[in-house]
Input
Amino acid sequence: MIEGLVFYLFAAITVASGVMVVSSRNPVYSVLWLILAFFNAAGLFLLLGAEFLAMVLVIVYVGAVAVLFLFVVMLLDINYLRLREGFMQYLPVGALIGLILVVELLMVYGGWKFADDAPLSVASRTPDPTAISNTDALGRLLYTDYAFLFQAAGLVLLVAMVGTIMLTHRTRTGVRKQVIAKQNARTKESSVEIVKVTSGGGI
Amino acid sequence: MELPNLAPALPELLIVASAIILLLIGVFKKENAGGGITALGIIALALTALLVVSGPSERTETFGGMFVVDGFAVFTKLLVLLASAVTLAMSRHWLRAEGLDHPEYPVLVLFATLGMMLMISANNFMSLYLGLELQSLALYVLAASQRDSGRATEAGLKYFVLGSLASGMLLYGASLVYGFSGTTGFDALAKALANEAPVGVTVGMVFILAGLAFKISAAPFHMWAPDVYEGAPTPVTAFFAVAPKIAAFALLLRVLTGPFGSMVEQWSQVIVFISVASMVVGGFAAIVQTNIKRLMAYSSIGHVGYALIGLAAGGPDGVRAVLIYLAIYLAMNAGAFAVILSMRQKERSLENIDDLAGLSKTHPMMALSLAIFMWSMAGIPPFAGFWSKWMVFSAAIDKGMIALSIIGVLTSVVSAFYYLRIIKVMYFDEPGEGLDRSISAPVGLVMGLATLAVLLFNLVPAGLFSSASAAAASLFGG
Output
């Protein structure tokens, strides 16, 4: 009873804030609504008993990704009104394609079937939640069963990093950098010159 | 837990290790070390090829069945490694002249090659996707690597946006298939789909096909190819034209004969349509091109169409025809791009077909090589390109696909027009200012070897034929 109520509360707020993300005029508000959606999604995960995913969602998505979005939105000077120009013009075509896709999806849904072995093969990956904690279960999946995929994903990220640096890094000339060794190597003789100034003569 | 068997993945491990080491050398040296990184990259690719050859020859799976090595994987991996090594060898001279000789270039080529090898060995939709993304991401960056050029940046961005869309379609299709069967492994999927395939799975398979057709730039998913080929730096275009296509083709063959092997009726009509559309687009759209890189893009779209005929024919014979087609395509394209890379005048690179005017008088050897490649691409005997087309057409006719073969022959005649036009420009037009005399040694070497390969193919085809047959047979559990 209580669980059902909480579920509908979280779910309704998630959907509503999702709508606000795409409909609010100010992009900063969109990001804030997005954060609300993340929090509620984390609540839904908790209800499912996936406490690790809930915490990761809050830490990674709210703590890092959303803040990054906020930075980008605030730093980039994007004219959102200009982005929306022509929206009405493309709306009919987009709506038509969307409609066709929805009809097709309904047809797929209508003819949907599961393979006989499907529940078995799904279950073989899901350990008993009462036997081990779900951090443990996820860890086993990621680092034992799917270690190969995990490493490959790591390589994808490495390529992304190399690519970003290659496309944006410029070596600037004329930058004055602090070189501590040089500073320490300075002596009184190399930097100070004592000049006798005769009165009225100047240097 | 015991460690997974790493032996089948040794080539991949070597290439990862060498890419990371070369990256570190590049970071500390801050330059290409006089071509040292490129040279080491080529050596790494050669060693990887040795490991591929010496690896297991019968079908071996590892990493919980997600990674497979068989005769098919060995054959296509060797083609990909050869294509990557050839591009690396050809590109340095051009890149240095344009001020693009960054140490990241060979490293990214290595990572892209790694992604292709993972694609070829994928035995699960998850490993397939990660390999594909690793390859694509490296290619996006390479396309945009000439960052002072507006065209290259546009090419990179366009490739990135459309490529992401294609990946999204592929993932969506894979999710539908997973939704039906509850598994992403190819072997388990083949078992689950053997008896029944409801409409949802067919839709999912078509989405997957669309995503893969984008990666091989088959019509109607070819729109990105001409712009990207034109905008990207020429060595990168040379890379795009061969290695990723071979890898994506290998993927397509493995997916369609493996998990979807029992759904031949559903996918063969899609493949036939894509094949006809690609041949027509490649044949007609290329006629009006003036830029040789755009022309090569349309030409590659057409060749993809011909190779798909082999796939549409299906069976070990069809797959063998596709593999031989890809091998010959590799030789023709490497050679043609070696000539395009040498089209320089007063330290500027030229890209127009008219710039080749009178090449026979200024550079007779280069003109002869390009003429041989063009004859071969047009499919005129006795050059290699004729045999590759003959193989796919005969595979199709054996399966009773007469109409498809006739369309293939007709578009082949249309495409002969623009291939022969290049020869006409080289031999019968008055020379303009003429190209620079100097051709870098690796480019000349590639040009010469490719010419020999295309010219003498029909003298020694037995080795290629038998290894391609073995590779094709291994895909069908032989």
Observations:
- Residues 150-181 of chain B form the longest helix (32 residues).
